[in-house]
Write a structure and sequence with these properties.
Blueprint: H1 11-23, H2 29-45, H3 59-69, H4 75-82, H5 86-89, H6 94-101, H7 103-111, H8 122-139, H9 142-156, H10 163-183, H11 187-201, H12 203-215, H13 217-237, E1 242-247, H14 250-258, H15 264-267, E2 270-277, H16 280-294, E3 301-303, E4 316-322, E5 325-333, H17 334-342, H18 352-371, H19 381-396, E6 399-403, E7 409-413, H20 418-425, H21 427-430, E8 433-438, E9 441-443, E10 455-459, H22 476-487, H23 491-506, H24 518-528, H25 533-541, H26 547-555, E11 587-589, E12 601-606, E13 609-614, H27 621-626, E14 631-633, E15 660-666, H28 672-684, E16 688-694, E17 699-705, H29 708-721, E18 727-730
Helix pairs in contact: 1-3, 2-4, 3-4, 3-9, 4-7, 6-7, 8-9, 8-18, 8-19, 9-10, 9-11, 10-11, 11-12, 11-14, 23-25, 23-26, 28-29
C-alpha cells in the first residue's frame, strides 16, 4: 500500500481505512483511489453519527467493506458497502452517489436502503424492506452480499444493545438472511453469521457448548490431525493428486445442538474434511474406496456433483464412523470449490448444471415478488407483509431439485407431486398433463417426486385441468394456475367440470352419479347450504369444495355430524375443528404418527373417512405409490385456543380446551427429584403430564399439548432445566 492516506475524523476511522486499503490490494491503483475517496466522502457524511458503543459510525461501513474485500469483490461493491447507510441516515442523495461513483454504486446502495413509513407499524416497515432487498437481489446479487456483510459486522458488535434487541436481531437474521444466503449459495458468510445468531439468541446455551469445545480443544485437534494424515495417505495410495483440508465444523455443531439434534458429548466427536481433486473421475475413485472400506450405506452418501443442492453447490459427501468418531468428508474439484464460495455471485464460474439449480431458486423467488409488485415511491406495505410471509414459508421449507429430460433444474418443496413439476415447467404443460415418467418409469400425476429425479410430463393437447387436482398439488403456483383456468370458464362449463370431477371421485368407491339417491343429494345440499346440485358442482370447480371430501362424507363407514357445531355441545373445541374446509366430514387422527396442531399434514381418504397424518408419515409411502389421489393436502385453521402467550393466559371461548397427545424421549434416566421438577415446569407452561416412564438410559414422557409450538416451548425449557440433554419427539411408541 504505497499511497499516503488522508487523515480522517478520528484515529479509529484512520485505522479502519488503513485496514481496508490493505485488503483491496487486488484492485487497480485507480480503483483503490476511488475507495479512499469514498472513505473520505462517507466520513464527512456520517461526521455526526455515533454507534451505540460510542465509536464513529463510519467505522462500521468501512468494516463491512473490509469483509467483502476478503471475497475479492469488485470496486463498485466495495464503495457501495462504504456508503451503504448514507442515503438512509444522512443528507446524501442517490443522485450525488451516481454522479460521483456511477450508476452501479447508486443502485447497490439503494438496494440495501430500508423502507420506512411513520404511517405503518414495525412489521409492515420490516416486510417492505425485506421485499425491497429481495427484489434488488434478483436484479443484482451483490445487494445481498453487502447486506450479509453488514449483518455479520452488526451481529459481532451487538454487546452495546439490550439483550432483547440482541435476541430480536439474531432471530430475524436466522429467519431471513441466513436461509436466503444459503439458497443463493453464499455458505461461507452464512456460516459465520449463523454462529453469531446462536451466540445472541441464547448466551447460556452458546457458552455451554463453547466451553465444552474449549475443554476438548486439544483432543479434537489431535484427532483431526490423525484423520487428516490418514486421508492424505489414502490419496497417495490411490495415486490421486489433491489436498485434504480440515474444515471448521463449529457451525454444524452449534446448529445441531441448538436444534436439539444431538448431545454435547456426541457432537464433540464430529469432524469434517474437504478433499479437493483434479477431476470428477478422481472424486468417484476416492468415494468408491471409502464407501467400500467403511461400508457406508446410501443414507450417508450425498452425490451432489450430478445433482447439486439448492444454491448450486456441487460435491460428493460421505459420512462414516471410525473409532466412535463421526467423520464427514466432502469431495469436490477446484472449480466446484470456487463456485461454492460465492454462489450466485460467482455463478459464471460454476458448471452448467450448478447454474441451472441457482436459476431454479431465482425463478421461484421472482414468482413470489411478481405476485405483489411494490412501488417504491408509494409502497403497499400490506402487500409486502403477505409476500414476505410467503417468502418465509418458502425459505424454511425443505426443498428438492428435479430435472427435465433436457437437464433443466426445477426447485420444488418436499412432498411436491409430478403435477407440481408440470406447473413449474409452465401452465401450458400443467394444464394439458395426463401422466408422467419418473426416472423412465410410468407414474401418475399425483405421485410424490424425490430429490434428483428425472421427470418427463406426458401431455395431451386436448386434455384440460381437473378439479380434483386441487386436492393434491402442493405448490401455490400449481394451485393458482388451476384456479385461474377454472375462473375463466362460463357458469355452465364450471358446473360441467364439477359434475365430471365428482363422478370420477365416486369411481374410487365403484359408484357413479346415478348411484346417488335423493336422500344423498338432500344430505349434501343441506351440508353445504345450497339450493341445487349445480351450485354444488360450481363449488367443486371453484376449489371451494374437493370432490374427494364429498365422497368421503357419503361413503365413510360412520357418517359425520351434519355440521361442525356438533362438536361444541360441551363447550370444548375438538381437534377436528382445527382442520380447514372439512366441516361435516368424518375425521380421525392417525395413531401411526400422532399429528398435532402446527404439523404439516395430509389426509388419507379411507372408508373410515378422512384420516389425518403428518405429511412425512411412513405408513403413507405405499398408498402414495399405488393410489396417490387418495392423499389430499390439508391445512390447519388459525385458532386462538392454540395461540396463547407464554404466561399461559387464555383467550377465546374454547381457550385451553384443545389438546393433543405427544411423546418425548429424553436421553437421560431421570431421578425422582428430576421427575418432580419436570412435571412442575411443564405444568407451569400448561402442558399436561400423563405418564413418566424411566428406563435404563432414557426417559419417555407422555404429555398433552395445544400445538407444535407449545411442545417446542416445553422441550426448550426442559433442556435448559436438565443441562441440555437431547430430547426428541416420538411419533410412534
Amino acid at each position: 500500500m504505497s499511497q499516503t492516506l488522508t487523515k480522517l475524523s478520528h484515529p479509529l476511522v484512520d485505522e479502519a481505512q488503513y485496514n481496508l486499503l490493505r485488503s483491496v490490494g487486488y484492485l487497480s491503483a485507480s480503483e483503490r483511489s476511488d475507495i479512499v475517496d469514498a472513505c473520505v466522502f462517507g466520513d464527512i457524511a456520517h461526521i455526526k453519527d455515533k454507534r451505540k458503543s460510542g465509536e464513529p459510525y463510519i467505522t462500521h461501513p468501512i468494516a463491512v467493506a473490509e469483509i467483502l474485500a476478503g471475497f475479492r469483490l469488485d470496486r463498485d461493491t466495495i464503495i457501495a458497502a462504504i456508503l451503504h447507510d448514507t442515503v438512509e441516515d444522512t443528507d446524501v442523495t442517490d443522485e450525488q452517489l451516481e454522479e460521483r461513483y456511477g450508476k452501479v454504486v447508486a443502485r447497490l446502495v439503494d438496494g440495501v436502503t430500508k423502507l420506512k413509513s411513520s404511517n405503518h407499524n414495525k412489521q409492515q416497515n420490516k416486510a417492505a424492506t425485506f421485499h425491497k432487498i429481495l427484489t434488488a437481489t434478483l436484479a443484482d446479487p451483490r445487494v445481498l452480499i453487502i447486506k450479509l456483510a453488514d449483518r455479520l459486522h452488526n451481529m459481532s458488535t451487538l454487546d452495546a444493545v439490550s439483550p432483547e434487541k440482541q435476541r430480536t436481531t439474531a432471530q430475524e437474521t436466522l429467519d431471513f438472511y441466513v436461509p436466503f444466503a444459503r439458497l443463493m449459495g453464499l455458505n461461507d458468510i452464512a456460516d459465520y453469521i449463523e454462529v453469531l445468531c446462536y451466540r445472541n439468541l441464547d448466551s447460556e446455551m452458546y457458552n455451554r457448548l463453547s466451553d465444552k469445545l474449549l475443554q476438548h480443544g486439544l483432543g479434537r485437534n489431535f484427532q483431526r490431525e490423525a484423520i487428516h494424515r490418514y486421508l492424505s495417505i489414502v490419496l497417495n495410495n490411490l495415486e490421486l493428486n489433491g489436498h485434504v483440508k480440515v474444515l471448521d465444523n463449529r457451525v454444524a455443531i452449534y446448529r445441531q445442538f441448538f436444534r436439539n439434534r444431538g448431545e454435547i458429548n456426541a457432537l464433540l466427536r464430529h469432524y469434517a474434511f474437504e478433499i479437493v481433486l483434479d477431476s470428477i473421475e478422481a472424486c468417484n475413485k476416492l468415494a468408491y474406496y471409502l464407501i467400500k472400506k467403511y461400508q457406508i450405506d446410501d443414507t450417508h452418501i450425498q452425490d451432489n456433483i450430478r445433482r447439486p443442492l439448492p444454491g448450486g453447490n456441487q460435491s460428493l459427501t460421505l459420512i462414516y464412523e471410525r473409532d466412535n468418531d463421526v467423520i464427514k468428508v466432502t469431495i469436490l474439484t477446484k472449480k466446484m470449490q470456487n463456485a461454492a464460495r460465492l454462489g450466485v455471485i460467482g455463478a459464471e464460474h460454476a458448471s452448467d448444471v450448478s447454474q441451472s439449480v441457482i436459476q431454479a431458486s431465482l425463478r421461484n423467488m421472482k414468482d413470489l415478488v411478481d405476485e405483489e409488485t411494490i412501488d417504491e415511491n408509494n409502497p403497499d406495505f400490506t402487500a409486502a407483509v403477505s409476500t414476505i410471509n410467503e417468502l418465509m414459508d418458502y425459505l424454511h421449507s425443505s426443498k428438492i431439485i428435479c430435472y427435465s429430460p433436457q437437464g433443466r433444474a426445477y426447485e420444488l418443496p418436499q412432498g411436491a407431486t409430478a403435477l407440481d413439476f408440470a406447473y413449474a415447467v409452465g401452465p401450458m404443460i400443467g394444464n394439458v398433463a395426463v401422466g408422467a415418467n419418473i426416472d423412465n418409469k410410468k407414474a401418475k400425476l399425483g405421485t410424490v417426486v424425490k430429490n434428483g429425479q428425472l421427470v418427463e410430463i406426458e401431455i395431451n393437447n386436448h386434455s384440460q385441468p381437473k378439479a380434483e387436482w386441487l386436492g393434491f398439488v402442493v405448490t401455490n403456483k400449481a394451485r393458482e394456475e388451476i384456479l385461474r383456468w377454472f375462473k375463466d370458464l362460463s357458469a355452465a362449463d364450471k358446473q360441467h367440470h364439477g359434475q365430471q370431477a365428482l363422478d370420477r371421485a365416486l369411481k374410487t368407491h365403484q359408484k357413479n352419479l346415478d348411484d346417488l339417491s335423493a336422500s344423498d343429494w338432500t344430505n349434501l345440499l343441506e351440508w353445504r347450504g345450497l339450493p341445487e346440485k349445480s351450485a354444488l358442482f360450481e363449488q367443486i370447480s371453484s376449489g371451494t369444495l374437493l370432490p374427494q371430501l364429498v365422497v368421503s362424507r357419503l361413503f365413510s363407514d360412520e357418517m359425520a355430524c351434519l355440521n361442525a357445531e356438533c362438536y361444541s355441545d360441551d363447550d370444548t373445541a375438538q381437534p377436528q375443528q382445527l382442520i380447514a374446509n372439512v366441516a361435516g366430514v368424518e375425521i380421525d387422527f392417525a395413531n401411526c404418527c400422532h399429528p398435532i396442531y402446527g404439523d404439516p399434514i395430509v389426509g388419507h381418504l379411507s372408508r373410515h373417512g378422512l384420516v389425518v397424518h403428518r405429511h412425512k408419515c411412513f405408513s403413507l409411502d405405499d398408498i402414495r405409490k399405488d393410489n396417490p389421489y387418495q392423499i389430499i393436502q390439508l391445512r390447519w385453521r388459525d385458532d386462538k385456543a392454540t395461540n396463547q402467550n407464554e404466561s399461559g393466559e387464555h383467550s377465546g371461548k374454547n381457550s385451553g380446551k384443545v389438546r393433543f397427545p405427544a411423546y418425548l424421549k429424553l436421553s437421560i434416566a431421570l431421578s425422582d427429584e428430576q421427575i418432580s421438577e419436570v412435571i412442575y415446569h411443564l405444568r407451569q407452561l400448561n402442558i399436561g403430564v400423563e405418564k413418566v416412564d424411566v428406563r435404563s438410559s432414557d426417559t419417555i414422557v407422555h404429555v398433552i399439548v395445544r400445538s407444535r409450538n407449545h411442545l417446542a416451548q416445553g422441550i426448550r425449557d426442559l433442556r435448559s432445566l436438565l443441562g441440555f440433554p437431547n430430547i426428541i419427539r416420538l411419533y410412534q411408541l
